[in-house]
């Protein structure tokens, strides 16, 4: 059985670390929604667009959304291959210039929704994870103060030689979520 896990919280709370480890352990696909913003910002910049050209930006992104939705495997390969570049602070700064465009945010939400249909994903992302996966069976919201706890838990999992089953991970997450409420 595939379940969807959504992780949300502020920057620095450990979403990516937790999401990557969970996805690896339960053989899911990991998706950092922030990569989408950085990917689009990089494409827009490389093609000479600037955030002030709102209508042109939206038109370009709608075209890219259509292309991406036709071949999600290729898109995920591109994201994986460009992950180091997309994680660079310069690209994050570019994304922050384009992300205030509400229509672009909506295009990215719709694209992620399309890509996630009937797939097993661990999704992390600020402000959009629960909007994209409102039906997620496991929802986690991290606060910035939980970052150290997440890092410690990640190290414990990493050092552990036992492999947790899907049910054990799900049970652990639900129990932790209840304790944190």
From TrEMBL:
CDD domains: CMPK
Keywords: ATP-binding, Kinase, Nucleotide-binding, Transferase
Gene Ontology MF, one: ATP binding
Enzymatic class: transferase
Catalytic activity, EC: 2.7.4.25
Gene Ontology biological process: nucleobase-containing compound metabolic process
NCBIfam families from the UniProt entry: cmk
Protein name: (d)CMP kinase
Organism of provenance: Paraglomus occultum
